Amino acid sequence: MARLNSVAFRLIAAAAVVSLAGLAAGGWLLSNVFRASVERQLDERLIADMENLIAAAEPGPTGELDVMNIFADQRYDTAFSGWYWQVTADGEGGQRLTSRSLWDKALATPGTPAGGGLARGYTDGPEEQKLRYVVRRISFPDMVALAEGREAPPKIYLFATAADLANSQAEAARFDATLLWSLGALGAFLVLATLVQVRVGLSPLRVVRDKLAAIRAGRAQRLEGSFPAEIAPLADELNALLAHDAEIVQRARTHVGNLAHGLKTPLSVLTNEAALAKGPLADIIVKQAEVMRRQVDHYLARARAAASAEVLGVRTEAAPVIADLARTLERIHGRRGIEIETDVPADLAFRGERQDFEELAGNLMDNACKWAASQVKAAAAPAGQFLILTVEDDGPGLNPDEIVRVLEKRERLDETVPGSGLGLGIVRDIADLYGGRLELGRSQALGGLSARLTVPLA
Are 342 and 323 within 8 A, CB to CB? Predict the structure, then answer.
């Protein structure tokens, strides 16, 4: 599902709001147009019936108006059917003629037209009916005055027809119901179409995301593939950034290597010259030169790891590195009969530089070989997004206080064992730079030290 702060959600929400608002406005307009059309048709029917009524009306010799029942529609003859007509003489107490359907009731027509015009409106009918009516004022000559040969003003009558609105309202309600479900289905289709459109339209971004994840995991070095015109510049800039990053790292490695060479050579000269001389000064020079060598090794390893820890697209197979280190260390410690057992899956990989992984695993395995009586075991396994490397030996191990001194205070516990004494500290620093950690404890299988290293998994 699209997150609330995503581009997909914004596109879908905007399209849905616009589409639904348009459908609602269109539905309201169509409903009103249909209701107006139904009302207009009803008015036309009422006007036609009223004109037939006017045509059937004739003034009698007594001055009263006679209306012939000329309607074929039986609803005007059925009591309270909803269809009514009425003729009323203008003025109080005048003649009033009504359809049989009105029975003994009368129609109230609030709107009264002027001259020969037409008025229409709504009124209440019998049986609590809501009626639509049309009314027209018609004048007839005074037949009594004409027969007597005198002049008299014409008589005015109001001709009205009315019909119950229930049928028209029911028809409009059926239309509204049909309109509602049809527009609802259309709205759902539009929203679904928007979802598909957004998903298809944003699919190149998902491809870029997956390819970047592959680069970060070490499965690729750059963004490869064909991208749309809008995404291609982004891919080119990302590839340029990756190339620039790799160039910076390589330059930093070169500088670190040059610095290491420039410092170690003078230190070796000082150490060799002081070793040939005798006296307190020579001893001090040898000790201080060794301290300087240890510090140089430590900070150069840290600087090299810091330069490469965030490099994207770097992947190192773990099994070959562990196997090479095991063969090398068995030859180095061959006189002591040290055997190294390895258990590393072939598809396991470290997300980082090979040199850094060699530094990490090499220091741990070399330290284990130095203190082991006869056996060292190195095993690696995946754990979520991390690679766990465990190196154990059958040596004396370390108690909790000694672990703190080695890792936190970086003390060298035994000067008789060759090395700088900074191997575990370097491992911890490099692991921290990669977002991992180093844990020391007692080996349950071999009884000596157990070093558990956690680093990113490719």
Answer: yes
Range among 86-100, 141-155, 181-195, 426-440 rated most confident = 181-195
CB 156, CB 139: distance < 8 Å: yes
**Distances 76 to 45, 58, 348 between C-alpha atoms, Å:** 13, 20, 94
Express each pLDDT in 162-177 by its tens digit. 999 998 899 999 999 9
**pLDDT score of 65:** 84
Range scoring the smallest mean pLDDT among 75-89, 266-280, 293-307: 293-307
Cα–Cα distance for residue pair 15/25, rounded to 1 Å: 15
| Rounded Cα–Cα distance for residues 373 and 438 (Å) | 23
Secondary structure (DSSP) of 330-352: HHHTGGGT-EEEEE--TT-EESS
139 has a pLDDT exceeding 60: yes
What is the pTM for the complete model shown?
A: 0.50
Contact assessment for residue 423 and residue 367, using Cβ atoms and an 8 Å cutoff: yes
Q: What would the two tokens of residue 377 be? A: 């075991």
Cβ contact 300:256 at 8 Å:
yes
Cα–Cα dist 129/125, whole Å: 5
| Count of C-beta atoms within a 10 Å radius of residue 207 | 17
Which two three-digit tokens encode residue 424? 């575990």
Residue 214 confidence (pLDDT) above 70: yes
Distance CA 414, CA 206 (A): 55
306 close to 434: Cβ distance less than 8 angstroms: no
Structure tokens at 458: 């490719």
- Can you name the residues that pair with 67 across neighbouring β-strands? 57
